[in-house]
Amino acid sequence: xxxxxxxxxxxxxxxxxxxxxxxxxxxGTSLGQRESGNSAVDGKKPNIVFVLTDDQDLHxxxxxxxxxxxxHLIDNGTLYKRHYCTTAICCPSRVSLWTGKLAHNxxxxxxxxxxxxxxxxxxxxxxxxxxxxxxQQAGYDTYYTGKLFNAHNVDNxxxxxxxxxxxxxxxxxxxxYMYLNASFQRNQDPPVSYEGQYLGDVLAQKAxxxxxxxxxxxxxxxxxxxxxxxxPHSNVNATPISNATTPDPDELGAAFGPPxxxxxxxxxxxNVSVPRTPNFNPSFATGASWVRNLxxxxxxxxxxxxxxxxxxxxxxxxxxxxxxDVVERLAQHGLLENTYIFYTSDNGFHIxxxxxxxxxxxxxxxxxxxxxxxRGPGVPKGKVAEVVTSHVxxxxxxxxxxxxxxxxxxDLDGEAVPLTEGELNKAENxxxxxxxxxxxxxxxxxxxxxxxxxxxxxAANNTYKALRIIGGQYNFxxxxxxxxxxxxxxxxxxxxxxxxxxxxxxxxxxxxxxxPFEKFTARLDALLLVLKSCKGQTCVQPWQALHPAGNVQNxxxxxxxxxxxxxxxxxxxxxxxxxxxxxxxxAEGPQFEKDGLVYRxxxxxxxxx
Length: 609
What we know:
One of its GO terms (biological process) is phenol-containing compound metabolic process. It is built from 19 helices and 24 strands. It is an alpha/beta fold. It has two domains: 46-78 and 87-433, Alkaline Phosphatase, subunit A (3-Layer(aba) Sandwich), CATH 3.40.720.10; 436-608, no CATH class.
Protein backbone atom coordinates (compact mmCIF):
# COMPACT_ATOMS: atom_id res chain seq x y z
CA UNK A 1 0.00 0.00 0.00
CA UNK A 2 1.13 3.53 -0.71
CA UNK A 3 1.41 6.12 2.05
CA UNK A 4 2.74 9.63 2.41
CA UNK A 5 5.04 10.60 5.28
CA UNK A 6 5.14 14.14 3.93
CA UNK A 7 1.47 14.31 4.88
CA UNK A 8 2.35 13.13 8.37
CA UNK A 9 4.94 15.87 8.71
CA UNK A 10 2.34 18.58 8.26
CA UNK A 11 -0.08 16.97 10.67
CA UNK A 12 -2.54 15.25 8.34
CA UNK A 13 -4.40 12.07 9.22
CA UNK A 14 -2.35 8.88 9.57
CA UNK A 15 -2.72 6.73 6.43
CA UNK A 16 -3.94 3.19 6.88
CA UNK A 17 -0.75 1.83 5.32
CA UNK A 18 1.12 2.60 8.54
CA UNK A 19 -1.48 1.04 10.79
CA UNK A 20 0.02 -2.33 11.47
CA UNK A 21 1.81 -5.24 9.90
CA UNK A 22 3.49 -8.16 11.56
CA UNK A 23 6.57 -10.28 11.35
CA UNK A 24 6.42 -13.66 13.06
CA UNK A 25 10.17 -13.60 13.65
CA UNK A 26 9.99 -10.50 15.87
CA UNK A 27 9.18 -10.94 19.55
CA GLY A 28 9.82 -7.40 20.80
CA THR A 29 8.65 -7.54 24.41
CA SER A 30 11.62 -7.31 26.74
CA LEU A 31 12.10 -3.55 26.68
CA GLY A 32 8.44 -3.15 27.43
CA GLN A 33 9.02 -5.21 30.55
CA ARG A 34 11.95 -3.00 31.59
CA GLU A 35 11.22 0.67 31.07
CA SER A 36 14.84 1.61 31.75
CA GLY A 37 15.68 1.00 28.10
CA ASN A 38 18.51 -1.39 29.05
CA SER A 39 16.86 -4.63 28.09
CA ALA A 40 18.04 -8.11 27.37
CA VAL A 41 16.56 -11.36 26.17
CA ASP A 42 17.46 -14.26 28.48
CA GLY A 43 19.87 -11.95 30.30
CA LYS A 44 21.92 -11.12 27.19
CA LYS A 45 22.57 -7.55 26.20
CA PRO A 46 20.82 -6.66 22.95
CA ASN A 47 22.68 -6.30 19.67
CA ILE A 48 22.43 -3.11 17.59
CA VAL A 49 22.37 -2.66 13.82
CA PHE A 50 22.47 0.96 12.67
CA VAL A 51 21.72 1.82 9.03
CA LEU A 52 22.70 5.38 8.08
CA THR A 53 21.79 6.54 4.58
CA ASP A 54 23.16 9.67 2.94
CA ASP A 55 20.94 12.66 2.08
CA GLN A 56 17.67 10.72 2.34
CA ASP A 57 14.55 12.87 2.40
CA LEU A 58 11.41 12.48 4.47
CA HIS A 59 9.36 15.28 2.91
CA UNK A 60 9.70 14.13 -0.70
CA UNK A 61 8.18 10.77 0.30
CA UNK A 62 11.19 8.52 -0.29
CA UNK A 63 9.95 6.04 2.32
CA UNK A 64 6.82 5.50 0.22
CA UNK A 65 8.97 3.71 -2.38
CA UNK A 66 10.74 1.29 -0.01
CA UNK A 67 8.34 -1.64 0.54
CA UNK A 68 10.86 -3.89 2.30
CA UNK A 69 11.77 -1.21 4.83
CA UNK A 70 8.08 -0.68 5.39
CA UNK A 71 7.52 -4.39 5.95
CA HIS A 72 10.52 -5.08 8.19
CA LEU A 73 11.00 -1.78 10.02
CA ILE A 74 7.99 0.56 9.85
CA ASP A 75 5.33 -2.13 10.31
CA ASN A 76 7.44 -3.84 12.96
CA GLY A 77 8.84 -0.79 14.69
CA THR A 78 8.25 2.87 15.43
CA LEU A 79 8.63 5.77 13.01
CA TYR A 80 9.70 9.00 14.71
CA LYS A 81 8.18 11.62 12.46
CA ARG A 82 9.73 14.59 14.30
CA HIS A 83 13.36 13.51 14.17
CA TYR A 84 15.91 16.15 13.17
CA CYS A 85 19.52 16.43 12.22
CA THR A 86 21.18 19.42 13.86
CA THR A 87 23.50 20.38 10.98
CA ALA A 88 22.22 19.68 7.48
CA ILE A 89 25.39 18.37 5.89
CA CYS A 90 26.99 14.98 6.21
CA CYS A 91 30.31 15.17 8.09
CA PRO A 92 29.25 17.56 10.88
CA SER A 93 25.98 15.66 11.20
CA ARG A 94 27.71 12.28 11.43
CA VAL A 95 30.21 13.54 13.98
CA SER A 96 27.32 14.87 16.09
CA LEU A 97 25.50 11.58 15.72
CA TRP A 98 28.47 9.44 16.83
CA THR A 99 29.61 11.77 19.64
CA GLY A 100 26.27 13.02 20.99
CA LYS A 101 27.57 16.57 20.69
CA LEU A 102 26.34 19.55 18.70
CA ALA A 103 28.67 20.84 16.01
CA HIS A 104 29.58 23.96 17.99
CA ASN A 105 30.99 21.56 20.62
CA UNK A 106 32.81 19.22 18.22
CA UNK A 107 34.04 22.14 16.06
CA UNK A 108 33.63 19.87 13.03
CA UNK A 109 31.47 22.15 10.93
CA UNK A 110 32.33 21.34 7.31
CA UNK A 111 33.03 18.36 5.07
CA UNK A 112 36.68 19.25 4.40
CA UNK A 113 39.60 20.93 6.17
CA UNK A 114 40.25 23.43 7.60
CA UNK A 115 36.82 23.40 9.30
CA UNK A 116 35.76 19.80 8.92
CA UNK A 117 36.31 16.33 7.56
CA UNK A 118 38.16 13.39 9.08
CA UNK A 119 41.37 15.38 9.79
CA UNK A 120 39.36 17.84 11.88
CA UNK A 121 37.63 14.97 13.70
CA UNK A 122 41.06 13.61 14.62
CA UNK A 123 42.61 16.96 15.59
CA UNK A 124 39.71 17.69 17.94
CA UNK A 125 40.49 14.55 19.91
CA UNK A 126 37.25 12.85 18.92
CA UNK A 127 38.83 9.67 17.58
CA UNK A 128 39.33 8.64 21.20
CA UNK A 129 35.92 9.80 22.43
CA UNK A 130 33.02 8.57 20.32
CA UNK A 131 30.43 5.83 20.21
CA UNK A 132 32.42 2.72 19.17
CA UNK A 133 35.00 3.35 21.90
CA UNK A 134 32.24 3.68 24.49
CA UNK A 135 30.44 0.57 23.24
CA GLN A 136 33.62 -1.49 23.41
CA GLN A 137 34.06 -0.34 27.00
CA ALA A 138 30.51 -1.62 27.61
CA GLY A 139 31.49 -5.07 26.34
CA TYR A 140 30.38 -4.81 22.71
CA ASP A 141 32.13 -5.96 19.57
CA THR A 142 31.89 -3.18 16.99
CA TYR A 143 31.82 -3.35 13.20
CA TYR A 144 31.28 -0.76 10.49
CA THR A 145 31.14 -0.62 6.72
CA GLY A 146 30.38 2.20 4.30
CA LYS A 147 30.94 5.92 4.58
CA LEU A 148 32.33 7.17 7.88
CA PHE A 149 33.38 10.80 7.31
CA ASN A 150 34.32 13.03 4.41
CA ALA A 151 38.03 13.66 3.72
CA HIS A 152 38.81 10.16 5.01
CA ASN A 153 40.78 9.25 1.93
CA VAL A 154 43.30 7.02 0.22
CA ASP A 155 46.15 9.09 1.66
CA ASN A 156 45.12 9.61 5.31
CA UNK A 157 43.17 6.41 6.06
CA UNK A 158 45.97 5.32 8.41
CA UNK A 159 46.85 8.70 9.89
CA UNK A 160 45.51 7.47 12.24
CA UNK A 161 43.14 4.58 11.62
CA UNK A 162 39.64 5.27 12.97
CA UNK A 163 39.61 3.89 16.50
CA UNK A 164 37.09 1.64 18.18
CA UNK A 165 36.32 -1.00 15.57
CA UNK A 166 36.79 -4.77 15.80
CA UNK A 167 36.18 -4.89 12.08
CA UNK A 168 35.81 -2.10 9.54
CA UNK A 169 35.59 -1.64 5.78
CA UNK A 170 35.32 2.07 5.04
CA UNK A 171 34.55 3.86 1.82
CA UNK A 172 37.39 6.31 1.17
CA UNK A 173 37.64 9.52 -0.81
CA UNK A 174 37.94 10.56 -3.57
CA UNK A 175 35.84 7.53 -4.58
CA UNK A 176 33.18 7.59 -1.84
CA TYR A 177 30.37 8.88 -4.06
CA MET A 178 31.26 7.00 -7.23
CA TYR A 179 28.56 4.38 -7.56
CA LEU A 180 30.57 2.41 -10.14
CA ASN A 181 34.13 3.12 -8.95
CA ALA A 182 34.21 2.80 -5.17
CA SER A 183 37.28 2.13 -3.03
CA PHE A 184 37.07 0.43 0.36
CA GLN A 185 39.71 0.23 3.09
CA ARG A 186 39.35 -2.86 5.27
CA ASN A 187 40.70 -3.00 8.84
CA GLN A 188 44.35 -1.94 8.48
CA ASP A 189 44.81 -3.02 4.87
CA PRO A 190 45.45 -0.59 1.98
CA PRO A 191 42.43 0.61 -0.01
CA VAL A 192 41.02 -1.69 -2.71
CA SER A 193 39.23 -0.46 -5.83
CA TYR A 194 35.90 -1.95 -6.89
CA GLU A 195 35.76 -0.28 -10.29
CA GLY A 196 32.89 -1.49 -12.42
CA GLN A 197 30.98 -3.07 -9.52
CA TYR A 198 27.83 -1.49 -8.16
CA LEU A 199 28.55 0.21 -4.85
CA GLY A 200 25.31 -0.81 -3.14
CA ASP A 201 25.87 -4.49 -3.88
CA VAL A 202 29.50 -4.41 -2.72
CA LEU A 203 28.42 -2.75 0.52
CA ALA A 204 25.65 -5.30 1.10
CA GLN A 205 28.08 -8.20 0.87
CA LYS A 206 30.47 -6.52 3.27
CA ALA A 207 27.66 -5.77 5.73
CA UNK A 208 26.39 -9.35 5.68
CA UNK A 209 29.94 -10.62 6.07
CA UNK A 210 30.43 -8.53 9.19
CA UNK A 211 27.06 -9.68 10.48
CA UNK A 212 28.24 -13.27 10.13
CA UNK A 213 31.50 -12.38 11.91
CA UNK A 214 29.59 -10.67 14.71
CA UNK A 215 27.23 -13.58 15.24
CA UNK A 216 30.12 -15.95 15.85
CA UNK A 217 30.48 -14.38 19.31
CA UNK A 218 27.00 -12.87 19.65
CA UNK A 219 25.80 -15.45 22.16
CA UNK A 220 28.62 -14.45 24.53
CA UNK A 221 29.30 -10.85 23.46
CA UNK A 222 26.78 -8.40 21.99
CA UNK A 223 27.64 -6.47 18.85
CA UNK A 224 27.10 -3.15 17.14
CA UNK A 225 27.10 -3.09 13.34
CA UNK A 226 27.04 0.25 11.51
CA UNK A 227 26.06 0.14 7.83
CA UNK A 228 26.38 3.39 5.90
CA UNK A 229 25.23 3.29 2.26
CA UNK A 230 25.94 6.27 0.04
CA UNK A 231 22.49 6.18 -1.55
CA PRO A 232 20.70 8.38 -2.37
CA HIS A 233 23.59 10.90 -2.42
CA SER A 234 24.54 12.48 -5.73
CA ASN A 235 27.15 10.73 -7.82
CA VAL A 236 30.32 12.79 -7.39
CA ASN A 237 33.54 12.64 -9.33
CA ALA A 238 36.00 14.36 -7.02
CA THR A 239 39.67 14.85 -6.30
CA PRO A 240 41.18 14.75 -2.80
CA ILE A 241 40.93 18.01 -0.87
CA SER A 242 43.51 18.56 1.86
CA ASN A 243 43.17 22.20 2.92
CA ALA A 244 40.60 23.91 0.72
CA THR A 245 39.68 27.47 1.63
CA THR A 246 37.90 28.54 -1.57
CA PRO A 247 34.10 28.62 -1.44
CA ASP A 248 33.78 27.64 -5.12
CA PRO A 249 32.88 23.93 -5.49
CA ASP A 250 33.91 24.02 -9.14
CA GLU A 251 37.42 24.84 -8.00
CA LEU A 252 37.31 22.00 -5.49
CA GLY A 253 37.25 19.45 -8.29
CA ALA A 254 33.77 18.07 -7.53
CA ALA A 255 31.44 17.22 -10.40
CA PHE A 256 27.95 16.45 -9.10
CA GLY A 257 25.31 14.45 -10.93
CA PRO A 258 22.23 12.36 -10.18
CA PRO A 259 22.84 9.13 -8.25
CA UNK A 260 23.29 5.96 -10.28
CA UNK A 261 21.05 2.98 -9.52
CA UNK A 262 21.83 -0.69 -10.00
CA UNK A 263 21.04 -1.89 -13.50
CA UNK A 264 18.11 -3.97 -12.21
CA UNK A 265 16.45 -0.80 -10.87
CA UNK A 266 17.26 1.56 -13.74
CA UNK A 267 13.79 1.55 -15.32
CA UNK A 268 11.65 1.92 -12.22
CA UNK A 269 9.32 4.85 -11.46
CA UNK A 270 9.15 6.19 -15.02
CA ASN A 271 6.17 8.43 -14.31
CA VAL A 272 7.19 9.66 -10.86
CA SER A 273 8.09 13.31 -10.24
CA VAL A 274 9.05 15.50 -7.31
CA PRO A 275 5.89 16.05 -5.22
CA ARG A 276 4.34 19.36 -6.28
CA THR A 277 3.83 20.71 -2.79
CA PRO A 278 2.89 24.39 -2.30
CA ASN A 279 6.54 25.30 -1.70
CA PHE A 280 7.73 23.60 -4.89
CA ASN A 281 8.99 26.21 -7.37
CA PRO A 282 6.64 28.86 -5.95
CA SER A 283 5.61 31.84 -8.06
CA PHE A 284 6.93 34.23 -5.40
CA ALA A 285 10.21 34.49 -3.52
CA THR A 286 10.44 32.79 -0.13
CA GLY A 287 12.98 32.36 2.65
CA ALA A 288 15.74 34.77 3.64
CA SER A 289 19.27 35.75 2.62
CA TRP A 290 20.43 34.24 -0.68
CA VAL A 291 17.38 31.95 -0.91
CA ARG A 292 15.12 34.96 -1.39
CA ASN A 293 16.99 35.90 -4.58
CA LEU A 294 16.41 32.59 -6.36
CA UNK A 295 14.53 32.62 -9.66
CA UNK A 296 11.75 30.24 -10.78
CA UNK A 297 12.86 27.07 -12.51
CA UNK A 298 12.35 26.65 -16.24
CA UNK A 299 10.54 23.67 -17.73
CA UNK A 300 13.89 22.20 -18.77
CA UNK A 301 15.10 22.61 -15.19
CA UNK A 302 11.97 20.96 -13.78
CA UNK A 303 12.33 18.00 -16.13
CA UNK A 304 15.96 17.44 -15.11
CA UNK A 305 15.11 17.69 -11.43
CA UNK A 306 12.33 15.13 -11.82
CA UNK A 307 14.92 12.81 -13.38
CA UNK A 308 17.25 13.53 -10.46
CA UNK A 309 14.45 12.60 -8.07
CA UNK A 310 13.71 9.33 -9.86
CA UNK A 311 17.38 8.40 -9.75
CA UNK A 312 17.37 8.92 -6.00
CA UNK A 313 14.41 6.57 -5.60
CA UNK A 314 16.07 4.00 -7.84
CA UNK A 315 19.36 4.19 -5.95
CA UNK A 316 17.50 3.61 -2.68
CA UNK A 317 16.20 0.25 -3.89
CA UNK A 318 19.55 -1.35 -3.09
CA UNK A 319 19.20 -0.02 0.47
CA UNK A 320 15.70 -1.49 0.65
CA UNK A 321 17.09 -4.88 -0.35
CA UNK A 322 20.00 -4.52 2.09
CA UNK A 323 17.67 -3.96 5.04
CA UNK A 324 15.62 -7.04 4.14
CA ASP A 325 18.81 -9.11 3.83
CA VAL A 326 20.02 -7.95 7.24
CA VAL A 327 16.70 -8.76 8.92
CA GLU A 328 16.59 -12.19 7.29
CA ARG A 329 20.22 -12.93 8.24
CA LEU A 330 19.55 -11.93 11.86
CA ALA A 331 16.55 -14.27 11.88
CA GLN A 332 18.65 -17.11 10.45
CA HIS A 333 21.15 -16.64 13.28
CA GLY A 334 18.35 -16.55 15.88
CA LEU A 335 19.24 -12.99 16.88
CA LEU A 336 16.40 -10.90 15.49
CA GLU A 337 14.34 -10.82 18.68
CA ASN A 338 17.29 -9.44 20.68
CA THR A 339 18.52 -6.88 18.15
CA TYR A 340 17.65 -3.22 17.77
CA ILE A 341 17.67 -1.93 14.21
CA PHE A 342 17.96 1.83 13.74
CA TYR A 343 17.41 3.44 10.36
CA THR A 344 18.05 7.12 9.69
CA SER A 345 19.88 9.56 7.41
CA ASP A 346 22.63 12.06 8.10
CA ASN A 347 20.53 14.92 6.69
CA GLY A 348 17.59 15.54 4.40
CA PHE A 349 17.42 16.94 0.88
CA HIS A 350 15.52 19.40 -1.26
CA ILE A 351 14.73 19.45 -4.97
CA UNK A 352 12.79 22.47 -6.18
CA UNK A 353 11.28 23.55 -2.86
CA UNK A 354 11.69 27.31 -2.40
CA UNK A 355 13.16 27.35 -5.95
CA UNK A 356 16.23 25.50 -4.66
CA UNK A 357 18.24 23.26 -6.94
CA UNK A 358 19.03 19.75 -5.62
CA UNK A 359 20.98 20.00 -2.38
CA UNK A 360 20.81 20.37 1.39
CA UNK A 361 22.43 22.75 3.95
CA UNK A 362 19.30 24.82 4.57
CA UNK A 363 17.14 25.04 7.69
CA UNK A 364 13.90 24.13 5.91
CA UNK A 365 12.05 20.99 7.00
CA UNK A 366 13.11 19.18 3.82
CA UNK A 367 16.75 19.42 4.95
CA UNK A 368 16.56 18.91 8.71
CA UNK A 369 13.54 16.65 9.35
CA UNK A 370 14.82 13.17 8.48
CA UNK A 371 13.63 9.57 8.76
CA UNK A 372 14.17 7.70 12.01
CA UNK A 373 12.77 4.19 12.38
CA UNK A 374 13.55 1.87 15.28
CA ARG A 375 12.72 -1.80 15.57
CA GLY A 376 13.71 -3.95 18.55
CA PRO A 377 12.80 -5.47 21.91
CA GLY A 378 9.90 -3.57 23.46
CA VAL A 379 9.57 -1.07 20.60
CA PRO A 380 5.90 -0.67 19.58
CA LYS A 381 4.99 -2.04 16.17
CA GLY A 382 3.41 0.19 13.54
CA LYS A 383 3.57 3.29 15.73
CA VAL A 384 4.21 6.84 14.53
CA ALA A 385 5.74 8.81 17.40
CA GLU A 386 5.22 12.54 17.88
CA VAL A 387 8.11 13.17 20.28
CA VAL A 388 10.85 15.61 19.25
CA THR A 389 14.20 13.88 18.79
CA SER A 390 17.49 14.73 17.11
CA HIS A 391 20.78 13.18 16.07
CA VAL A 392 22.52 14.16 19.31
CA UNK A 393 19.96 11.97 21.10
CA UNK A 394 21.09 8.82 19.31
CA UNK A 395 24.43 8.21 21.04
CA UNK A 396 22.76 8.42 24.48
CA UNK A 397 20.07 6.05 23.19
CA UNK A 398 22.56 3.44 22.04
CA UNK A 399 24.59 3.75 25.22
CA UNK A 400 21.48 3.26 27.32
CA UNK A 401 20.61 0.13 25.32
CA UNK A 402 24.16 -1.09 26.01
CA UNK A 403 23.62 -0.66 29.73
CA UNK A 404 25.87 2.36 30.17
CA UNK A 405 24.98 4.55 33.15
CA UNK A 406 24.42 8.04 31.74
CA UNK A 407 23.81 9.69 35.09
CA UNK A 408 26.19 12.57 35.57
CA UNK A 409 27.76 12.44 32.12
CA UNK A 410 28.38 16.01 31.00
CA ASP A 411 29.81 15.19 27.56
CA LEU A 412 26.50 14.54 25.80
CA ASP A 413 24.24 17.27 24.40
CA GLY A 414 21.19 15.04 23.96
CA GLU A 415 19.02 12.62 25.89
CA ALA A 416 17.99 9.09 25.06
CA VAL A 417 15.07 8.58 22.68
CA PRO A 418 12.02 7.00 24.35
CA LEU A 419 11.63 3.52 22.87
CA THR A 420 8.87 1.68 24.74
CA GLU A 421 5.15 2.36 24.72
CA GLY A 422 5.33 3.59 28.30
CA GLU A 423 8.27 5.89 27.63
CA LEU A 424 6.62 7.28 24.53
CA ASN A 425 3.35 7.94 26.33
CA LYS A 426 5.16 9.85 29.06
CA ALA A 427 7.20 11.85 26.55
CA GLU A 428 4.19 12.70 24.43
CA ASN A 429 2.41 13.95 27.55
CA UNK A 430 4.96 16.68 28.01
CA UNK A 431 7.83 15.19 30.00
CA UNK A 432 10.35 15.54 27.16
CA UNK A 433 12.00 18.65 25.74
CA UNK A 434 10.29 20.28 22.77
CA UNK A 435 13.19 21.91 20.91
CA UNK A 436 15.96 21.14 18.43
CA UNK A 437 19.14 23.17 17.94
CA UNK A 438 19.90 23.80 14.26
CA UNK A 439 23.18 25.34 13.12
CA UNK A 440 25.22 25.73 9.96
CA UNK A 441 28.42 27.38 8.79
CA UNK A 442 29.84 28.03 5.34
CA UNK A 443 28.30 27.55 1.95
CA UNK A 444 25.37 25.88 0.24
CA UNK A 445 26.07 23.95 -2.95
CA UNK A 446 23.75 23.14 -5.83
CA UNK A 447 24.17 19.50 -6.88
CA UNK A 448 22.07 19.75 -10.01
CA UNK A 449 22.59 21.55 -13.29
CA UNK A 450 22.92 25.27 -13.87
CA UNK A 451 20.21 26.44 -16.25
CA UNK A 452 20.62 30.22 -16.03
CA UNK A 453 23.62 32.28 -16.97
CA UNK A 454 23.32 34.31 -13.78
CA UNK A 455 22.91 31.25 -11.53
CA UNK A 456 25.75 30.23 -9.21
CA UNK A 457 26.42 26.71 -7.99
CA UNK A 458 27.13 27.93 -4.48
CA ALA A 459 26.13 30.49 -1.89
CA ALA A 460 28.96 31.53 0.43
CA ASN A 461 27.05 33.21 3.26
CA ASN A 462 24.98 30.26 4.41
CA THR A 463 25.88 30.57 8.08
CA TYR A 464 22.93 30.67 10.48
CA LYS A 465 21.72 29.61 13.93
CA ALA A 466 18.19 28.33 14.34
CA LEU A 467 15.80 26.35 16.48
CA ARG A 468 12.75 24.21 15.97
CA ILE A 469 10.23 24.13 18.79
CA ILE A 470 7.14 21.94 18.73
CA GLY A 471 4.63 21.82 21.56
CA GLY A 472 1.04 20.80 21.94
CA GLN A 473 -0.25 24.14 20.65
CA TYR A 474 2.65 25.40 18.56
CA ASN A 475 5.12 24.50 15.84
CA PHE A 476 7.79 27.13 15.06
CA UNK A 477 11.10 27.72 13.31
CA UNK A 478 13.26 30.69 14.26
CA UNK A 479 16.63 31.59 12.73
CA UNK A 480 19.23 34.34 12.71
CA UNK A 481 21.58 34.50 9.73
CA UNK A 482 25.17 35.73 9.77
CA UNK A 483 23.88 38.74 7.81
CA UNK A 484 21.67 39.34 10.88
CA UNK A 485 18.53 38.72 8.87
CA UNK A 486 15.83 36.95 10.88
CA UNK A 487 13.52 34.17 9.81
CA UNK A 488 10.38 32.86 11.50
CA UNK A 489 7.68 30.42 10.41
CA UNK A 490 4.54 29.32 12.17
CA UNK A 491 4.28 25.80 10.76
CA UNK A 492 0.81 25.28 12.22
CA UNK A 493 -0.61 27.78 9.76
CA UNK A 494 2.27 27.71 7.24
CA UNK A 495 3.50 24.08 7.10
CA UNK A 496 5.50 24.65 3.90
CA UNK A 497 7.40 27.65 5.29
CA UNK A 498 6.28 30.07 2.61
CA UNK A 499 5.81 33.19 4.72
CA UNK A 500 8.79 34.48 6.70
CA UNK A 501 7.02 36.61 9.28
CA UNK A 502 10.25 38.48 10.09
CA UNK A 503 11.02 39.50 6.52
CA UNK A 504 11.15 43.27 6.06
CA UNK A 505 8.20 43.11 3.66
CA UNK A 506 6.06 40.86 5.88
CA UNK A 507 3.15 41.87 8.07
CA UNK A 508 3.56 39.79 11.23
CA UNK A 509 0.57 38.87 13.38
CA UNK A 510 -0.37 41.25 16.15
CA UNK A 511 -0.35 38.45 18.69
CA UNK A 512 0.81 34.86 18.83
CA UNK A 513 -0.11 32.36 21.55
CA UNK A 514 -2.01 35.17 23.23
CA UNK A 515 0.87 37.63 23.62
CA PRO A 516 2.12 40.49 21.42
CA PHE A 517 4.29 39.17 18.61
CA GLU A 518 7.41 41.09 19.64
CA LYS A 519 7.14 39.70 23.19
CA PHE A 520 6.81 36.21 21.75
CA THR A 521 9.89 36.48 19.50
CA ALA A 522 11.94 37.86 22.40
CA ARG A 523 11.45 34.50 24.14
CA LEU A 524 12.59 32.57 21.10
CA ASP A 525 15.65 34.77 20.71
CA ALA A 526 16.71 34.18 24.33
CA LEU A 527 16.19 30.46 23.90
CA LEU A 528 18.33 30.48 20.75
CA LEU A 529 21.02 32.46 22.57
CA VAL A 530 21.31 29.60 25.06
CA LEU A 531 21.14 26.82 22.46
CA LYS A 532 23.69 28.24 20.05
CA SER A 533 26.48 27.91 22.63
CA CYS A 534 25.07 25.34 25.08
CA LYS A 535 26.91 22.31 26.42
CA GLY A 536 25.69 19.11 28.02
CA GLN A 537 22.43 19.22 29.96
CA THR A 538 21.95 22.90 29.16
CA CYS A 539 21.28 21.77 25.56
CA VAL A 540 18.57 19.43 26.85
CA GLN A 541 17.07 21.80 29.44
CA PRO A 542 17.76 25.33 28.18
CA TRP A 543 14.86 26.87 30.09
CA GLN A 544 16.63 25.84 33.29
CA ALA A 545 19.52 28.10 32.29
CA LEU A 546 17.11 31.01 31.86
CA HIS A 547 15.01 30.20 34.93
CA PRO A 548 17.10 28.24 37.46
CA ALA A 549 14.23 28.27 39.96
CA GLY A 550 12.61 25.65 37.72
CA ASN A 551 9.38 27.60 37.25
CA VAL A 552 9.66 27.57 33.43
CA GLN A 553 9.71 24.23 31.63
CA ASN A 554 8.64 25.18 28.13
CA UNK A 555 7.77 28.04 25.80
CA UNK A 556 4.23 28.32 27.08
CA UNK A 557 5.50 28.85 30.64
CA UNK A 558 7.98 31.50 29.46
CA UNK A 559 5.20 33.61 27.94
CA UNK A 560 4.02 34.80 31.33
CA UNK A 561 3.84 38.59 31.37
CA UNK A 562 5.93 38.78 34.54
CA UNK A 563 8.98 37.84 32.43
CA UNK A 564 8.46 40.60 29.84
CA UNK A 565 11.25 42.88 31.03
CA UNK A 566 13.57 39.92 31.55
CA UNK A 567 13.27 38.83 27.92
CA UNK A 568 12.68 42.10 26.10
CA UNK A 569 15.01 44.49 27.90
CA UNK A 570 17.62 42.57 29.85
CA UNK A 571 18.83 39.93 27.42
CA UNK A 572 21.50 40.18 24.77
CA UNK A 573 20.10 39.46 21.33
CA UNK A 574 21.38 36.80 18.96
CA UNK A 575 23.58 38.38 16.30
CA UNK A 576 26.73 37.81 14.26
CA UNK A 577 29.71 40.12 13.96
CA UNK A 578 30.52 38.76 10.50
CA UNK A 579 29.98 35.76 8.22
CA UNK A 580 32.58 33.00 8.34
CA UNK A 581 32.96 29.60 6.69
CA UNK A 582 33.58 27.87 10.02
CA UNK A 583 32.99 28.15 13.75
CA UNK A 584 35.01 31.16 14.88
CA UNK A 585 33.65 32.32 18.22
CA UNK A 586 34.70 35.94 17.79
CA ALA A 587 32.41 36.15 14.74
CA GLU A 588 29.37 34.73 16.50
CA GLY A 589 28.22 37.64 18.62
CA PRO A 590 26.99 37.23 22.22
CA GLN A 591 27.58 33.84 23.81
CA PHE A 592 25.39 32.43 26.54
CA GLU A 593 28.26 31.26 28.72
CA LYS A 594 30.19 34.52 28.51
CA ASP A 595 27.88 37.48 28.13
CA GLY A 596 24.52 36.30 26.87
CA LEU A 597 22.36 36.66 29.97
CA VAL A 598 22.71 39.98 31.72
CA TYR A 599 20.20 39.00 34.43
CA ARG A 600 18.25 35.95 35.42
CA UNK A 601 14.95 37.26 36.67
CA UNK A 602 16.57 40.25 38.36
CA UNK A 603 19.74 38.52 39.60
CA UNK A 604 22.91 40.17 38.32
CA UNK A 605 25.18 38.01 36.22
CA UNK A 606 28.10 38.65 38.56
CA UNK A 607 26.09 37.27 41.49
CA UNK A 608 25.40 33.83 40.06
CA UNK A 609 28.06 33.08 37.46
